Amino acid sequence: MTATERTLELLARNLQEVFGEGDTRRRRAAIEDFYTDDCVVVTPDGTYVGHDALNEFAGDLRATHPDYVYTPSGKPQVVQDAGIVAWGSGPRNEVPEYTGLDVLLVRDGKIATLYVFLNPTLS
Description:
Blueprint: H1 3-19, H2 24-34, E1 35-43, E2 46-49, H3 50-64, E3 68-79, E4 82-91, E5 98-107, E6 110-118
Parallel strand pairs: 1-6
Antiparallel strand pairs: 1-2, 3-4, 4-5, 5-6
Protein name: Nuclear transport factor 2 family protein
Organism: Mycolicibacterium hodleri
InterPro entries: NTF2-like_dom_sf, SnoaL-like
């Protein structure tokens, strides 16, 4: 697998198997497979460092909306060691409740840094 293919895989699987996963064991296994030990995840709510912090954050986030799914929108893009994917989240087969953009930096085939941007909601 090329570096570009791995980054595309990480962009897709991270949405589903980390942030979309309700089972703690499966989510933790995905984190260990997808993220470096010293990973940094930066969100509007804070910065999380390492597998334990990421697992706790993703689990807490998942608990706030256990029936939501993450759906990529548009085509993921990769440039060298970085990738982006836009996404929406909401009930399956409905208009997303919120949308965002993930930007990740890959080191040695794993996510070293993930920036999560949330789009403002129009109400």
